[in-house]
Write a structure and sequence with these properties.
The protein is mainly alpha-helical and 140 residues long. The chain is 71% helix and 0% strand. It has a domain at 3-38 and 73-112.
């Protein structure tokens, strides 16, 4: 069995186990209740303080929005568990995909003599450049 098939089977098994772990929490005795779902998507935060005169950005704005949503939420623990599982699963899948791609690319590069020669030349040139640069700094 190839490594890609093993990876797919492992990811499928992990997803199935995660779903089986979550499903019992949604079982309800009262079927006529209404469930409200709030999706809060926050991208990477590179600026901690607000920008554009406080109109955009800043972690304080994100924190205030989270507090407002959490005050209205009746299932805080379940929400954090589901969000944590989603975060862990998406990060794991992304890292596994990057690792599979890097493995495949590395095996192709290793089998190509011409590419290996050029990689060795470029890296050798970089080491020579950095060595000369360090030597020039030490002579000052």
């Amino acid at each position: 069995m190839t490594s890609i098939r093993r990876l797919r089977r492992g990811m499928s098994a992990a997803l199935l186990l995660a779903l089986l772990a979550i499903l019992p929490t949604f079982a309800q005795k009262n079927t006529d209740c209404t469930v409200r779902v709030t999706l809060l998507q926050v991208n990477d935060v590179y600026q901690f303080t607000p920008v554009e005169g406080g109109k955009r950005g800043g972690l304080a704005r994100v924190s205030a929005l989270r507090k407002k949503i959490m005050a209205d939420s009746p299932h805080k623990t379940l929400a954090f568990l589901v969000l944590g599982l989603i975060f862990i699963a998406s990060g794991t899948l992304w890292c596994l995909g990057v690792a599979a791609f890097a493995s495949k690319a590395a095996s192709r590069i290793r089998h190509s003599q011409g590419v290996m020669v050029w990689i060795n030349r470029v890296l050798g040139g970089m080491f020579v450049y950095l060595g000369v640069r360090v030597a020039m700094l030490q002579t000052r």
